[in-house]
Amino acid sequence: MLTIQIGRITERLFAGLDIFLKPEVGASQAYILIYSFTIDIMAKYKFKCSDIGMNCSFSADEKNREDLVKKIAEHAKGAHQINEISPELKTKVDSAIKKSLF
After folding, report:
1. Sheet holding 59-62, edge to edge
2. pLDDT digit string (tens) for 33-82?
3. Environment class of 46 (CB within 10 Å of its CB; exposed 0-12, middle 13-18, buried 19+)
């Protein structure tokens, strides 16, 4: 369970995000805002070859989706001799990429 203490939140915390909390913003709204912000910072993208029906134990995770896709493409080429990704395979891979906190 993720617990965030909400005390005095300064504009500096959200500088560059164009998010400024006003006194009338309730604590639950502030909690949701901070929780969403935290998830985006801490999230990882994960992929398993077995999730697209391959008999393969490869799995990978990266902080951003683009880096993960590069890693998947390298694996597909080296381990499965897939040099060109078909639209069908791309759809399968895209749907198998998961976003998670851990």
Report:
1. 59-62, 44-48, 98-100
2. 554 555 556 679 999 999 999 999 999 999 999 999 999 999 999 999 99
3. middle
Amino acid residing at 44: K
Residue 44 CA to residue 78 CA, distance in Å, equals 24
Alpha-carbon 51 to chain mean position: 17
> Domain ranges in the chain?
11-42, 44-100
